[in-house]
């Protein structure tokens, strides 16, 4: 997958994209990330990319032309056979979810424009295929949001996670939260690892983990249970949890 990130703060990205799993994915040739400075597409000698809002009011607005020209520069030679997804990060966008990450992970080319200031000139909005928010809060800019999107998406590209890091057990993978994990030592500060996990009984462990995952989801995110793909066994576990 090729990802082009268009930003006015390129320096924010270098550590974030070159470390850990994203760094390894690029070394393995599974992922290519290019960072582009929108200021290089400014129309004036001060390299400015924003201006006052028509109609007055606080803040500045990102101008249409630098964004349009920056997007054109990275989409004129597309990677792969399909046209790229062109994503704007904005708190006014559609909520980013694991489902959206899976959808993006199946693309060959993503272009992500990091929004700033009070927003962008609405007339350039037609260049975007998606406007995405990472949550109901406001960041100082879209850079961190685009890193979140790239990170959550890249780890779902086949081969990016090793076997031991599989995405299969993730929270949200099948619509509910993950179960609790334990590692050595078996006793820590007077607290024991649950007996079942050292029993060697794989079926008992599976049922315990599923029960704990459903219990957590019920306590912390009951909204997820309305859309999760629940099995008959899950429903039975939930009934017994609710009757406790
Ligand atoms: N820019 C500022 N806040 C944001 C958010 N919550 N999601 C995406 N982009 C943003």
Describe the structure.
The structure is a single chain. The protein is α/β, with parallel strands linked by helices and 244 residues long. The protein contains seven helices and nine strands. It is elongated. Bound molecules: adenine (ADE). Adenine (ADE) is lined by residues 89-91, 115, 133-135, 137-139, 142, 145.
Features:
244 residues; alpha/beta; Trp Operon Repressor, Chain A; 5-stranded parallel β-sheet; 31% helix; binds adenine; 9 strands
Question: What is the overall number of helices?
Answer: 7
What's the level 1 CATH class of the largest domain? Alpha Beta
Name the beta content range.
15-25%
Percent of residues in helical segments? 25-40%
- Adjacency order of strands in the biggest sheet: 2-1-6-5-7
Overall pLDDT, averaged? 96
Helix vs. strand class = alpha/beta
